[in-house]
Amino acid sequence: MAQDREWRCGDPQQQRKWADATTDALRVLEGKWKIVIICQLFGTKEALRFSELERRCEGVNQKMLIQQLKELEKDGIVTRTVYPQVPPKVEYALTEMGKALGPSMAELIDWAITRKERMADKVT
Amino acid sequence: MAQDREWRCGDPQQQRKWADATTDALRVLEGKWKIVIICQLFGTKEALRFSELERRCEGVNQKMLIQQLKELEKDGIVTRTVYPQVPPKVEYALTEMGKALGPSMAELIDWAITRKERMADKVT
DNA sequence: TGGGTTACCCACCAAAAGGTAAGTATGGCG
DNA sequence: CGCCATACTTACCTTTTGGTGGGTAACCCA
User: Fold this and answer.
1) What pLDDT shows up at residue A77?
2) Does residue B112 form part of some domain?
């Protein structure tokens, strides 16, 4: 279980390994639009078309959206399905690995929200 | 509970809120050295001196380390304690909020490791 | 023939992040 | 006096990331 991980262990190798793994995980999520994209895909059972994603990610431009989707695809988070028709139709959906991000994101969200509240308290 | 979060809900407002919270959380962790620093601090019960951190974060340079520590301090993740002596001594430690990152990081690490394994399988 | 649709690509630019190498301040010590 | 150690700061440069504005291919329809 993730909860049982012994953070306080003094083994520098273990620490380094964790740091590496986490850095690695974050690298996959970094990029201005990736979290937005992933949350949009989490929010719909269905796959989303490129144009649909473009509409839902307010403020994104095509180049960026394509770039981020490509990276997510390369990193095994989303799948890209091309329907050979005119005009073109391409759908994006979360892979199993993408869906497995759920618990991590949930924890992160909890932490972020708690943090926001505490920070607000201190300012007041 | 974080686990119970309903990812599949179709509410676009909720999705946007989650995306924002997660983006926010990631913003705090982004930066080439932050995870390394945090993992090092998790790995020791004690606070760490600047020079000690510098030694433990292989490849970091002073400027970057200071920069990242400053941001972590501003974001409420670490504390900075100055001992007024010569030569100077400054110690860094995790705040409560920093320690609260534990579960998120544990989940992320689990995901990252699982992912690495699966990716390796596919390549082989 | 020429416009419409969709999912891209490309050349180019601006801003942000990361990195190097040189300082600086302080006081103890020989 | 001059060197040491520690924790920084500063000027400057390179790399990465983000963004704009134009293509382009494909086929349908009028």
Assistant:
1) 97
2) yes
